[in-house]
């Protein structure tokens, strides 16, 4: 059955403004059920958690439902879903609690800075996995030399937020686990682009952000509750010491958490399906991935034929994300030109700080990033291509 793109697009009110939203890698638009869930939570009345009255019970239920939904999305355990404002904040919080002076951490130059800097600032010894600047691949073989018995954490992304590269995370995880190290996998860019199974990836920690997959601005890190029991983050004396609450600071955005659950339900229902929510998610996200991949091959294929366009990376396995420059124009000028033609793309280093350094474009404005989400269609792609063609 073809991916029901018309029906999917119709659930996103923002798409009716006529712009081609190719900026999903920086944050997706939000479908009606998510907007409604957040508004309903506020309209119905919510209290802080753990109280004796119904509005508080509603918040208790919202938090529990959100953990269950996020666990379904990534194939994790609801009892190990840590919720917070965004991935960066949660990673800073966890990095210092997991590793420190005397430990080694292995980082990659493929990663968004949010899975780099929190690990470089905790006093551990850093070892770097390098990226091939031409292909944009992260060769696995180098990890055998980087990981040893002192390695506490291997932090790596499941997909590059600019090149789309999907490194061989399970192979890296095998090397890490053989040495007794923990895998901290940044799934922020990968999660919206296909089904996720954090156990198959070998992720001890899997980080994701709901605003990249049609939800509100909420982040989550998912781990085995038994592993979380062994970690003691800084926390208030008065706050719960249970897992995962131990890792959550202050009062949560309860209405937004209800929006996260609605986003997961939306993702599970993009194509008709039966079975558990996890099963429907796997089917629906596989269909979305297939749809995005086909559309992306048109986008990439056409850009490849344009002599005035420089494309960065050509990874074998990638998300529907492309990063390019246009001769004679700065990335910002390209983005402004496209914005005038009703196309939203991002320009700059996009926080891929190490990677844009490797590509030699960090100090020259980076490049232009266009990314597909499950709600983009052929007209979005055509409009981008026409706009770029005009810059020849
Ligand atoms: C791959 C990747 N990792 C991490 C982040 C940071 O996520 P957050 O904004 O939730 O802190 C981003 C944000 O763009 C990202 O694309």
Number of H/I helices: 14
Helices and strands, in order, run as HEHHEHEHEHEHEHEEHHHEEHEEHEH
Bulk shape: globular
User: What ligands are attached or bound here?
Assistant: pyridoxal-5'-phosphate
Question: In angstroms, what is the radius of gyration?
Answer: 21 Å
pLDDT averaged residue by residue: 98
Protein name: Cysteine desulfurase-like protein
InterPro entries: Aminotrans_V_dom, Cys_dSase-rel, PyrdxlP-dep_Trfase, PyrdxlP-dep_Trfase_major, PyrdxlP-dep_Trfase_small
Domain Aminotransferase class V: 21-384
Pfam families: Aminotran_5
List its traits.
single chain; about 400 residues; alpha/beta; seven-stranded mixed beta sheet; four-stranded antiparallel beta sheet; 14 helices; 13 strands; about 40% helix; globular; binds pyridoxal-5'-phosphate; PyrdxlP-dep_Trfase; Aminotrans_V_dom; Cysteine desulfurase-like protein
What does this structure look like?
This protein is an alpha/beta fold and 392 residues long. The protein is 38% helix and 15% strand. It is built from 14 helices and 13 strands. The strands form three sheets. Strands 2-8-7-6-5-3-4 form a seven-stranded mixed β-sheet, with helices on both faces. Strands 9-10-13-12 form a four-stranded antiparallel β-sheet, with helices on one face. Strand 3 (104-108), helix 5 (117-120) and strand 4 (125-129) form a beta-alpha-beta unit. It binds pyridoxal-5'-phosphate (PLP). Residues 21-384 form the Aminotransferase class V domain. InterPro entries: Aminotrans_V_dom (IPR000192), Cys_dSase-rel (IPR011340), PyrdxlP-dep_Trfase (IPR015424), PyrdxlP-dep_Trfase_major (IPR015421), PyrdxlP-dep_Trfase_small (IPR015422). Pfam families: Aminotran_5.
């Amino acid at each position: 059955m073809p991916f029901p793109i018309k029906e999917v697009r119709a659930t996103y009110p923002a798409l009716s403004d006529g712009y081609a939203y190719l900026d999903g890698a920086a944050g997706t638009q939000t479908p009606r059920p998510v907007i409604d869930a957040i508004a309903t939570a506020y309209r119905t009345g919510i209290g802080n958690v753990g109280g004796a009255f119904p509005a508080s019970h509603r918040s208790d239920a919202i938090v529990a439902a959100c953990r269950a939904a996020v666990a379904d999305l990534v194939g994790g355990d609801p009892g190990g879903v840590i919720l917070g404002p965004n991935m960066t904040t949660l990673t800073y919080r966890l990095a210092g609690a997991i590793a420190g002076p005397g430990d080694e951490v292995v980082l990659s130059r493929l990663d968004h800075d949010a899975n780099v800097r929190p690990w470089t600032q905790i006093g551990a010894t850093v070892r770097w996995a390098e990226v091939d600047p031409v292909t944009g691949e992260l060769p696995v073989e180098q990890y055998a030399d980087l990981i040893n018995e002192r390695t506490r954490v291997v932090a790596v992304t499941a997909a590059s937020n600019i090149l789309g590269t999907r490194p061989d995370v399970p192979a890296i995880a095998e090397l890490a686990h053989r040495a007794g190290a923990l895998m901290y996998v940044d799934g922020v860019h990968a999660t919206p682009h296909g089904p996720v199974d954090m156990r198959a990836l070998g992720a001890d920690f899997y980080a994701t952000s709901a605003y990249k997959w049609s939800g509100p601005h909420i982040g989550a890190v998912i781990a085995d509750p038994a592993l979380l029991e062994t970690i003691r983050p800084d926390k208030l004396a008065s706050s719960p010491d249970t897992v995962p609450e131990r890792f959550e600071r202050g009062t949560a955005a309860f209405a937004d958490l209800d929006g996260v659950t609605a986003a997961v339900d939306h993702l599970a229902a993009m194509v008709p399906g039966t079975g558990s929510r996890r099963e429907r998610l796997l089917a629906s996200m596989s269909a979305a991935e297939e749809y995005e991949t086909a559309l992306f091959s048109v986008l990439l294929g056409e850009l490849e034929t344009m002599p005035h366009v420089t494309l960065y990376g050509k990874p074998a396995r990638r998300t529907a994300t492309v990063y390019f420059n246009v001769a004679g124009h700065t990335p910002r000028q390209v983005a402004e030109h496209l914005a005038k033609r009703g196309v939203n793309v991002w320009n700059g280093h996009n926080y891929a700080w190490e990677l844009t350094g490797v590509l030699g474009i960090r100090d020259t404005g980076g490049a232009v990033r266009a990314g597909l989400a499950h709600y983009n269609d052929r007209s979005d792609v055509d409009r981008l291509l026409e706009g770029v063609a005009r810059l020849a």
